[in-house]
């Protein structure tokens, strides 16, 4: 296995790890990466992540640090904060959370006491673990109540959400999730939250890039707090941000530090700043709208091939497929598609009769494909590969999977991925 030319120091110091990095680079170059929470970052974001800023400790906030030597670090964090506020139109931004789950934990620490009631979308219906689900710390430390979707439409029933909120009187309500293929109606959630005097939090980890690019409505005018990761559709490093109205700024900042974290990861903060600068450019808006256009075209092509899509389609970057009608479990299909060079994740679907570790569905998305330059014109071919891959999984035809993998690699050779070394 050849060593990566782009990482000479790593190759010299730890050839075993360097070889694994090189293998991952080839894998990301040669496969259709369709997990909707994955993407490609730019070379600039990669470089920022690998700077000497990783050497610095910086507990506190700009101008209020517990360590000296912050004359370069403070401006880096201030750049990220100001760019976040400008891009999303927020009063206040905190760019220090290590990832999305700690960001959500900071919300609980700021606005709720242990044992109090919190409300979020049920995990099997498309929500996130940290929205009060039982196996999460948020469901153990707080009393979580969950809303879901209608069985007939696969969409949120706001009459049911209002009824549950009135009955349970939660301190915090989360909207958003990890497998929600439709536009989130932030205004409808805000009306309910005001009625029960709850803090409303929009978790836009999946759709932050679409919001920034104008391809999804913004939650900022409607909610108290916005929580998001900085990767996924936003195409930044693995980090997170919290944004809020000015009245909540002090509580959230205290919850992040010293409430939950010590020193921020300054190299990540720098890469967030770079990603936010990139997201403010006109070409990012083009990318965000293309992500949605690709997802809608892919959904239409899948429907034509007889696939059952949760909610009947998509409004964003994500398509959730129920494979019950194809007589193939989601896990079986996902593993077969991986061998075919199509990377997806198995996923529960609403009202799934199967267990979470062996569910009925798969979750797919278009961010990575779009970042490589694929358009609506390619989506019928992607749908055809998905159909052939699922059929091969059902029949146990490994040769068919190998053929698909070769075809996928051939197509992608003409669409280099951002940030990856070229041959």
What key phrases describe this protein's structure?
44% helix; 15 strands; Aspartate Aminotransferase, domain 1; 4-stranded antiparallel β-sheet; 2 domains; Aspartate Aminotransferase, domain 2; globular; alpha/beta; 423 residues
What report would you give on this structure?
The chain folds into 2 domains: 8-34 and 289-412, Aspartate Aminotransferase, domain 1 (Alpha-Beta Complex); 47-279, Type I PLP-dependent aspartate aminotransferase-like (Major domain) (Aspartate Aminotransferase, domain 2), CATH 3.40.640.10. Strands 4-10-9-8-7-5-6 form a 7-stranded mixed beta sheet, with helices on both faces. The chain has a 4-stranded antiparallel beta sheet with strand order 11-12-15-14. Helix 5 (100-111) packs across helix 10 (249-260). Helix 6 (137-141) links the parallel strand 5 and strand 6 (143-147). It is an alpha/beta fold. The longest helix has 23 residues, at 282-304. Helices cover 44% and strands 13% of the residues. The mean pLDDT is 96. It catalyses: (6R)-5,10-methylene-5,6,7,8-tetrahydrofolate + glycine + H2O = (6S)-5,6,7,8-tetrahydrofolate + L-serine.
């Amino acid at each position: 296995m050849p060593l990566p030319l782009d990482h000479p120091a790593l190759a010299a110091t730890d050839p075993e790890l360097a070889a694994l990095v090189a293998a991952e680079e080839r894998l990301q170059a040669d496969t259709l990466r369709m997990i909707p929470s994955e993407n490609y970052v730019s070379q600039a974001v990669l470089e920022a992540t690998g700077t000497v800023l990783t050497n610095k400790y910086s507990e506190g906030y700009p101008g209020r640090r517990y360590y000296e030597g912050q004359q370069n670090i403070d401006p880096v964090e201030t750049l990220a904060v100001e760019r976040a506020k400008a891009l999303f139109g927020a009063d206040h931004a905190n760019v220090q959370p290590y990832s999305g789950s700690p960001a959500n934990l900071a919300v609980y620490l700021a606005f709720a006491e242990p044992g109090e009631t919190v409300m979020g979308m049920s995990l099997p219906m498309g929500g996130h673990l940290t929205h009060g689900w039982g196996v999460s710390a948020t469901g153990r430390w707080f009393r979580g109540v969950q809303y879901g979707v209608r069985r007939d439409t696969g969409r949120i029933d706001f009459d049911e959400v209002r009824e549950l909120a009135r009955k349970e009187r939660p301190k915090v309500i989360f909207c958003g999730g990890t497998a929600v293929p439709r536009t989130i109606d932030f205004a409808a959630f805000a009306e309910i939250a005001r009625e029960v005097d709850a803090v409303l939090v929009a978790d836009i980890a999946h759709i932050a890039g679409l919001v920034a690019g104008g391809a999804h409505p913004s939650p900022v005018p409607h909610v108290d707090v916005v929580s998001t990761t900085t990767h996924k559709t936003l195409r930044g490093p693995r980090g997170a941000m919290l944004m809020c109205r000015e009245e909540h700024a002090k509580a959230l900042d205290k919850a992040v530090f010293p409430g939950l974290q010590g020193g921020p990861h300054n190299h990540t903060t720098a890469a967030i700043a770079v990603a936010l600068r990139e997201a403010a450019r006109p070409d990012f808006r083009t990318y965000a709208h293309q992500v949605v256009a690709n997802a809608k075209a892919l959904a239409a092509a899948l429907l034509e091939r007889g696939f059952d899509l949760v909610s009947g389609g998509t409004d964003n970057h994500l398509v959730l497929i129920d494979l019950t009608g194809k007589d193939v479990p989601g896990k079986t299909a996902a593993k077969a598609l991986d061998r075919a060079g199509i990377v997806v994740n198995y996923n529960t679907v609403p009202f799934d009769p199967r267990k979470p570790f062996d569910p009925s569905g798969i979750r797919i998305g278009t961010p990575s494909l779009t970042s490589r330059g694929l358009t609506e014109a390619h989506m019928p071919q992607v749908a055809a590969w998905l159909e052939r891959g699922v059929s091969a999984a059902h029949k146990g035809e490994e040769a068919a999977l190998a053929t698909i993998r070769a075809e996928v690699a051939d197509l992608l050779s003409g669409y280099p991925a951002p940030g990856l070394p070229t041959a």
